[in-house]
Amino acid sequence: MNSTPGTSLLDHLDAFRSTLLWCLGAVVVMSVPGSIFTFPLLMRYVAFVCPPGVELHYFTPFEPLIVQLELGLLTGCVLSLPVILVKLWSFVAPGLYLHEKRWVLFFIISSLVLMSMGVALSLGAVVPIVMNFSGSFAADGLKPVIGLGAFLKMAAMLSAGFAIVFEIPVALLLAIRFGIVRVESLQKHRPLIVVILFVGAALLTPPDIISQLLMGLPGWILFELTLFIGAGIAPRQNREDETEEYPVVLSSAVTPETVLTEQDTTACRTSDSQLHYVDDITYRRAARKKRKIRHI
Fold first, then answer.
1. Distance between CA 93 and CA 104 in Å, rounded?
2. Alpha carbons 172 and 182: distance in angstroms, whole number
3. What phi and psi values does residue 57 have, to the nearest 5 degrees?
4. pTM check: above 0.85
5. DSSP string, 255-295
6. Model confidence pLDDT, tens digit, residues 143-167
7. How many other CB atoms sit within 10 Å of the CB of residue 212?
């Protein structure tokens, strides 16, 4: 939709409804092949991550069907993501400035890349470690009986946790760029933030040190990269030299030879014979920097 000055609210709502219908239709269409082809892939993945002798079970008659439909819906959302992004972009792009478009594209691309890295690390490394850790408790008279739904839920929670941790740098960079958070403040609270990262990793992962480190260490590395990149994209402040002096604009009643000291400022302002005016912009700039106005 190309936004024009004459576009009414109803036109925007109609365009938004069309965008939602396109996104919903893409998810439904892509869910059909997702439901058909992902369940065999799930079985292969289960054989890859589970230790020898550990098999999955289902405890209700329709649990495999429900898992298959859930996988199909998840796969449909992933496969339809290009269509969703294109339709959403065509809806919001006409109302954005050029620099806003650049930052939205940065947010989308970096979010997708980091989210994919987090999910890949979770499914490729953490889930096998968790399953082997669970299988290590098996003994004579103690056999693991793991449900298919419980396994899928565990893998989904781990993937979501890693995706969230890997998305934190993008949110921090946007906050830094738009002045919501300062890099100096993040550097000052670095020890506390690192502790929070590892505590969050301990809460989001099973109670084994390896999976916790696999979430905490990448989060720490990404945080340090965020500080390094954020120092370059932070909004620049108006920095004046500390020795800069601010002139005073005098009225014509005061001769150029008249020099006013800081002690005489108050007296001169109240004097009828030597009334002068300070340039408003200069005065406010000096007040913001908490500097004294010097007169020449």
1. 9
2. 10
3. -135, 160
4. no
5. -TT----GGGHHHHHH-STT-----HHHHHHHHHTT-----
6. 888 888 888 888 888 888 888 888 8
7. 20
